[in-house]
Automatic annotation (TrEMBL):
Record protein name field: Guanine permease
A single Gene Ontology CC term: plasma membrane
Gene Ontology MF: a single term: purine nucleobase transmembrane transporter activity
The organism of origin for this protein: Sneathia vaginalis
Broad class of the protein's primary localization: membrane
Keyword Metal-binding: no
């Protein structure tokens, strides 16, 4: 079996081992297991059955991540995306007063459009057209972004009256455990102990029990809920409506550039880009995303996308699709062991995300900030990700500013036609949104 895995996933060629890939897969799962709790909570606000969404979240994550692992042989995991599920529930359904069946129809159409765009290499062309300075900026920006997510989860950073953010209560149990988790994880990494990030999360989780931050489950296993209340529930009669067009466009935009940003950023840090700065097998990776979204809509969940938490598995040494397969299997296991996975506290995932943020930001050293035409767009891409709470927005600011500053400084010929087209589309998108 070990030999089969080494040959199928080309482990020796990628300088990794079965043990490393398994640890990386477990680490990725633990950092993104929160989606099994959060996604049902968000979509149930839109009127969907909570238990059914939990089951569908796990199944759709499993299917999409398996496709990624086998077809693309990349260590990236997929699941219904945060932000996209919020747009689904709070903007389309609750905000516009439309049904969740309407929103699912928009997600299905988006997924099918992405399959077509991926097969025709449109999405791959977009990925490869992003300048190398921006690819490194995206990686660094994602590092700050996921560290910021960790700081919010832990309560170390909180909203404040009169100012956007301030320091939280650092003496709260969650904050103390998060800080401890950061230092114990870094200690394990410095000592080169295998599975340092995962062990740090496990130790933090165990310590959270006597602190009262989490508690042992009353039961260990349970049968998964049926997905029949949300399975294949579409409103095809509304396909040609204006609201449907707007919803599909919004899903397409955010999903495309969240996925592109994650793939480019994490792959850049993992040294998966080729000598031209392109991502080999980008089409296969993007197709996994498109298939996941289409199948996820049929099962009854919002847009499936590549998770930035995949960086945690990469930081643990994951380099191939075996990492993704391990993560996928754990999503299926979670269906019957929901109570166990539910005890992982925010402080455990927060400390891991902050450490991974440190791991990701290193690519900022590869950016030539002395060349303002490269440095300014990179800077905007980096800071806009955490400040706008969106990978997609960071990419937009990076690409639009890159096209403009190159053009006005007489270096327009250095920019590909695709980048100019993207910049125009981005600007038009925000103009249209401003008047809708």
């Amino acid at each position: 079996m070990k030999t089969f895995l080494e040959n199928f996933f080309k482990l020796k060629e990628n300088n990794t081992t079965v043990k490393t890939e398994i640890l990386a897969g477990i680490t990725t799962f633990m950092t993104m297991a929160y989606i099994l709790i959060v996604n049902p909570a968000v979509l149930s606000d839109a009127g969907m059955n909570h238990g059914a969404v939990f089951t569908t979240t796990a199944i759709s994550a499993f299917i999409a991540t398996v496709v990624m692992g086998i077809y693309a042989n990349y260590p990236f995991a997929l699941a219904p995306g945060m932000g996209l599920n919020a747009y689904f529930a709070y903007t389309i359904v609750l905000g516009k007063g439309l049904s969740w069946q309407f929103a699912l129809t928009a997600v299905l159409i988006e997924g099918l459009i992405f399959i077509v765009l991926t097969m025709t290499k449109v999405r791959e062309t977009i990925v490869n057209s992003i300048p190398m300075s921006l690819k490194n900026a995206v990686s660094a920006g994602i590092g700050i972004f996921i560290a910021f997510i960790g700081l919010i989860q832990s309560g170390l950073v909180v909203p404040a009256k009169g100012i956007p953010l301030t320091l939280g209560n650092i003496m709260s149990p969650v904050a103390i455990l998060t800080i401890f988790g950061i230092f114990i994880t870094l200690f394990l990494l410095v000592k080169r102990i295998p599975g340092g990030i995962l062990l740090g999360m496990l130790i933090t989780t165990l310590l959270a029990i006597p602190f009262g931050v989490t508690k042992l489950p009353s039961s260990i296993i349970g049968l998964p809920s049926s997905i029949s209340p949300i399975f294949f529930k579409f409103e095809f009669h509304n396909i040609l409506t204006f609201n449907m067009v707007i919803a599909i466009f919004a899903f397409l935009f955010v999903d495309l550039f969240d996925t592109v940003g994650t793939l480019v950023g994490v792959a850049s840090k993992a040294d998966m880009l080729d000598e031209n700065g392109n991502l080999p097998k980008a089409r296969q990776a993007l197709l996994a995303d498109a298939i996941g979204t289409s199948i996820g809509a049929c099962l009854g969940t919002s847009t499936v996308t590549t998770f930035v938490e995949s960086a945690a598995g990469v930081a643990e040494g994951g380099k191939t699709g075996l990492t993704a397969i391990v993560t996928a299997i754990l999503f299926i296991v979670a269906l019957i062991f929901e109570p166990i996975f539910a005890i992982i506290p925010p402080c455990a995932t927060a400390s891991a995300l902050i450490v991974v943020g440190l791991f990701m930001i290193g690519n900022i050293l590869k950016i030539d900030f002395s060349d303002f035409t490269e440095g300014l767009p990179a800077f905007l891409a980096i800071i806009m990700m955490p400040l706008s709470y969106s990978i997609a927005n960071g990419i937009v600011f990076g690409i639009v500013s890159y096209a403009i500053i190159k053009l006005i400084t007489g270096k327009g010929k250095q920019v590909s036609l695709v980048v100019y087209i993207l910049a125009i589309i981005f600007v038009l998108r925000y103009i249209i949104e401003a008047f809708i």
